[in-house]
Backbone:
């Protein structure tokens, strides 16, 4: 069985094709990179509309299959930016109707977790999902993926990107911040906001920008942002692992490309006698393969959905998904 998945919750439109063994036969994408300012939902949607058909063709060519050999069309139903979600859902519906194949809508956050489980062979991990718009600590309990902790304001990647934009770094700023942080020497005091299992980043962002205006070394500032924000994530992840008593931690989302974050979580895991797993880089960021794979799991275990039931959901919560495949 082959599944074709289309991702399009935010800045990236991606198309992936996977088989039942979680082999990724193709995974191609295009990302909006605004020259100034943040991502404009309508502009991002226009970008996705332009790119989605060529990407579908490119994915089929890369996988070496004809489109009518695909057995299932999956798409990202949410959470995400409304115009982007609607564009991608429309493409998925058109494709499913044209090919006369079933369609399934997938929760984006759950997909980050499932592709990690599928690729890394870790059965029951706690997921630290750290991306641009989302920051959540997720684990499975009694038929659902439960959110144990999450950001109370902005996603960690948004915090990094907003900081980077103000100090003149290109989008996305995460990689530049990581590079500058390597030459950081002094740990500057920044707000460390952990509230129970939750985190918050806007106070840290404001404080970092104030320090920047006061002329502190950029390298020290990047270093301090990373040390503070990543320690917050590591702390809530550890608390969730202790609470649900799970021995594996899985990383997902674009921010987990950061080597310093990986080191911190790896160290915490080792101290608890736990293991850390990270999927291949192109499967950490938003991608079509994770949607294809989660769609496949859902389709094989759950009821069929009619095209009329494929409405998008901008605020689709991780714990709304009934996990029929576990
Ligand atoms: P996603 O939303 O999952 O596609 O991830 C995109 C986010 O990952 C953006 O906010 C980037 O700034 C961030 N990112 C990418 N690479 C790195 C890195 N090396 N360190 C920190 N953040 C990163
Ligand atoms: Mg994501």
Residues:
């Amino acid at each position: 069985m082959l599944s074709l998945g289309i991702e399009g919750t935010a800045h990236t439109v991606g198309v992936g094709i996977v088989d039942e063994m979680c082999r990724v036969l193709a995974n191609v994408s295009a990302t909006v990179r605004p020259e100034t300012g943040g991502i404009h939902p309508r502009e991002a949607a226009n970008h996705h509309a332009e790119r989605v058909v060529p990407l579908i063709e490119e994915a089929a060519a890369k996988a070496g299959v004809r489109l009518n050999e695909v057995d299932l069309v999956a798409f990202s139903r949410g959470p995400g930016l409304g115009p982007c979600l609607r564009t991608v859902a429309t493409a998925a519906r058109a494709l499913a109707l044209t090919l006369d194949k079933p369609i399934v809508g997938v929760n984006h956050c759950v997909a980050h977790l499932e592709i990690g489980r599928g690729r890394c062979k870790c059965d029951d991990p706690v997921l630290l999902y750290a991306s641009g718009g989302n920051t959540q600590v997720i684990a499975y309990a009694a038929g659902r993926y439960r959110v144990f902790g999450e950001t109370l304001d902005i996603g960690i990647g948004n915090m990094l990107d907003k900081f980077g934009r103000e100090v003149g770094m290109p989008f996305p700023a995460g990689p530049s911040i990581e590079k500058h942080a390597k030459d950081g020497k002094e740990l500057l005091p920044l707000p460390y906001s952990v509230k129970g299992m939750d985190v918050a980043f806007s106070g840290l962002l404001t404080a970092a920008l104030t320090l920047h205006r006061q002329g502190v070394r950029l390298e020290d500032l990047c270093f301090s942002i990373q040390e503070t924000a990543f320690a917050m994530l590591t702390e809530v992840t550890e608390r969730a692992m202790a609470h649900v008593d799970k021995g594996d931690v899985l990383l997902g989302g674009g921010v987990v490309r950061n080597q310093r974050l990986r080191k911190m979580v790896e160290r915490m895991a080792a101290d608890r006698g736990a293991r850390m797993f990270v999927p291949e880089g192109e499967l950490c960021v938003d991608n079509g393969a994770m949607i294809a794979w989660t769609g496949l799991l859902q389709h094989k275990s759950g009821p069929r959905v009619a095209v009329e039931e494929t409405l998008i959901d901008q605020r689709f919560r991780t714990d709304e998904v009934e996990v029929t495949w576990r």
Notes: The pocket of magnesium ion (ligand 2) is lined by residues 108, 112, 131, 134, 253, 286 (CB under 6 Å). The chain is about 45% helix and 20% strand. The first strand starts at residue 2 and ends at 7. Residues 75 and 207 are 39 Å apart (CA to CA).
